[in-house]
Design goal:
The protein is an alpha/beta fold. It is 26% helix and 26% strand. The protein has three domains: 14-108 and 138-350, Alpha-Beta Barrel (TIM Barrel), CATH 3.20.20; 358-564, Class I glutamine amidotransferase (GATase) domain (Rossmann fold), CATH 3.40.50.880; 572-664, Golgi alpha-mannosidase II (Immunoglobulin-like, Sandwich). The protein is globular.
């Protein structure tokens, strides 16, 4: 198994998260468990790690213990977790251990005073109703934290050295229980104030994370493992919370509410701010966790695993073991085919690093739920085939050729200093929408070369691209669906897009047409200007693309990027659904090509069932010298190429959704 340089981290490549949330009414837990069959199922499916349950959301334990929480129908002579671990270890498979934290039905029913309370003193429950089946949420400022610590210590004492510990359901949970109220008063917080309750819950979380981390470290005693992980924490805080963990896990079931834009956003952020070994968990479920007998199309699982591989992360697939303890063969036949393909790709990218030219600065305070601007940036840049990271304002900028500041943030003194130094050193910057203005409505950067004139009085304006940015655009007044601000260029600043304004703003007494008033004139204001290496957009282009997906917004963004980044890493003429990622591994440059059909076939549910064939798609890859060899992997099929002006020129054909173009230098 791969280890880190300190020889303390054992990290998997193709894992399974084996859910086992089993209520007390289930009568036959573990009755069909067969250790040999269990282990061979995973071994044959190219799996090297299975996360197993010591404790589920119901609060039940699945190992031999005198604690009363042990599942009531688990046979007295069966230490299920013990036998699962032994079976997997016998075939060389890692077996980290899972414990649920704030979801614990057994503890909640035995100790109702441990349940978190709302400010109205109602018990916190996932459904919001006491009469709907749903998890009760425990208060970590109550004695439940000691109860949880005792369970963790027992597991560590019993199983150490463990292959890892996975603690789930660890978000900040505000509470108004007697325990929380007392704790807030002692720390000087006012329980009546929402923000104080949130701050206290955050401190409580960090307190128990440190406590549980210390229990792990004391018992594991430095022996190699996957380490400890606290799930359900915002990844945008990983730069702070990395002191509690040894690796990162990104939970992302695209069909389970996360969507297909979530993983690229979070993965690119985690990679840039906390370069820890990272595993990403999707699921075999058609929908989300708990969709016991839902099975997604195989092409969807392949796409998700290839996305993870392309970000130099390792893959995990969520499954749910039937209460009787027998894995489903159909599930592991499908996972095995996908994992076999991933395994065949791994040697070509092992030890590599993702290459990015563009940094997209977002506001980490927004948490893991991407804003419209973040979604717009991710989708547009992927579709434009640009190589990019998502970063925090505190990140260094010098490694990037272009920085894009999204509408989500204000340029404070720290970021302003970083941007000015970056621009002075020759860097290029695009600032979008309200990020271009300070809190007083004045230009945030003197280098932008603009004068600001307040928010536009019009909810809809019109974009008139000037000749330098009209590639792919008609001579047309494209509507901007979201309100921007008014700006004019200073001397020496070039207007790239002019603003058309409507005859009047639409209201209930004064309107024309169905939705917005037509354009009445081209105004003196600019929507996009360029001042040297800085482009400023008065229109919130990224957020608008995230909300409306108008292709002309993406094309306009691409044209502006071309002015500042004329030599991108990749030029590919495939469909807009084609995704590319560049990896550098030694003297090799590897380009992932992913071409899958993501479709919204049901309300709130995106489905992938088909690949989009790539047939002789022209591709150019920026490299420093003429390559020795160019081929497709994992097939190792050599392909013809030419080299001129710093680019390898070739074409790619792939019918099954994913391939890697390998350039040997």
């Amino acid at each position: 198994m791969p280890k880190n340089t300190a020889d303390r981290l054992i990290f998997p490549k193709r894992a399974i998260h084996l859910d086992f949330h089993t209520g007390p009414a289930i009568p036959d837990v573990g009755h069909e468990f067969n250790a040999t069959e269990f282990a061979q199922t995973f071994k044959k499916a190219h799996i090297d790690c299975v996360c197993l349950f010591a404790k589920c959301h119901h609060g039940h334990l699945y190992y031999q213990t005198d604690r009363p929480e042990r599942h009531p129908s688990l046979p007295a002579n069966l230490g299920l977790l013990e036998e699962q671990i032994e079976a997997l270890h016998s075939v060389g498979i890692l077996a980290p251990i899972y414990l649920s934290v704030q979801c614990d039905e057994f503890a909640a029913n035995a100790h109702p005073d441990w349940i978190a309370l709302t400010s109205e003193l109602k018990q916190v429950k996932g459904s919001g109703s006491p009469f709907l089946p749903s998890w009760q949420i425990l208060d970590m400022s109550s004695p439940f934290q000691d109860y949880m610590a005792d369970q963790l210590r027992e597991v560590m004492d019993k199983f150490a050295p463990v292959d890892g510990i996975f603690l789930d359901m660890c978000w900040d949970q505000p509470s108004c229980s007697k325990w929380a109220l007392d704790g807030m008063r002692k720390r000087g917080f006012d329980p009546r104030i929402d923000s104080d309750r949130s701050r206290y819950s955050h401190e409580v979380s960090h307190g128990y994370m440190q406590r549980f981390h210390d229990i792990y470290e004391e018992t594991q005693n430095g022996r190699p493992s996957l380490g400890i992980w606290f799930n359900s924490r915002p990844k945008t805080q990983i730069h702070i919370e990395k002191k509690f963990v040894h690796h990162v896990m990104i939970e992302c079931l695209p069909t389970g509410g996360w969507g297909y834009a979530y993983f690229p956003y979070v993965a690119r952020y985690v990679r840039s701010v906390a370069p820890l070994p990272t595993i990403s968990c999707t699921g075999r479920f058609f929908k989300s966790w708990g969709d016991n007998s839902g099975l997604k199309p195989e092409m969807a699982l392949k796409y998700e695993c290839c996305q993870v591989l392309s970000q130099q992360m390792t893959v995990e697939t969520g499954d749910l073991l039937h209460p009787r303890g027998k894995p489903d063969q159909a599930v592991y036949d499908m996972i095995g085919r996908v994992y076999s393909y991933i395994e065949s790709c791994e040697p070509f990218v092992e030890g590599g690093e993702v290459v990015s030219q563009i940094a997209v600065i977002i506001n980490p305070e927004l948490g893991d739920a991407p804003s419209s601007a973040a979604y717009g940036a991710v989708r547009a840049l992927q579709q434009l085939q640009h190589q990019f990271d998502i970063i925090s304002p505190a990140n260094g900028l010098s490694r990037y050729e272009l920085v894009i500041v999204t509408e989500d943030i204000r340029i404070d003194d720290g970021l302003k200093k970083s941007l000015k130094e970056y621009i002075a050193a020759g860097g290029a910057v695009i600032v979008c929408g309200p990020a271009a203005l300070d809190e007083n409505g004045a230009p945030a950067l003197e280098e932008s070369g603009i004068a600001a004139h307040g928010q536009s009085p019009y909810s809809h304006t019109f974009l008139h691209a000037q000749p330098v940015v009209t590639k792919g655009l008609a001579d047309y007044r494209y509507v901007m669906y979201d309100r921007g601000f008014r700006m004019t260029p200073l001397d020496g600043t070039e207007t790239l897009v002019r603003v058309g304004e409507p005859y009047f703003e639409r209201d209930y007494e004064h309107f024309s047409g169905h939705e917005y008033t037509p354009e009445g004139r081209i105004s003196e204001y600019a929507a996009v200007v360029r001042s040297g290496r800085v482009i400023t957009m008065a229109a919130p282009l990224l957020a608008a693309y995230g909300k409306h997906a108008a292709p002309n917004y993406r094309v306009l963004l691409g044209n502006c990027i071309d002015l500042l980044l004329p030599c991108p890493m990749i030029r590919a003429q495939g469909p807009t659904k084609l995704e590319t990622t560049v990896i550098r591994a030694g003297n090799r440059l590897i380009v992932h090509f992913m071409s899958f059909s993501v479709e919204r076939r049901a309300e709130g549910l995106d489905i992938v069932e088909d690949a989009i064939p790539l047939v002789n798609v022209p591709v150019s890859v920026k490299v420093d010298a003429r390559p020795k060899r160019v081929f497709l992997a994992p097939s190792e099929q050599d392909i013809a190429f030419t080299y001129d002006n710093g680019y390898v020129h070739t074409s790619v054909t792939e019918l099954d959704g994913h391939t890697m173009l390998v350039v040997d230098l």
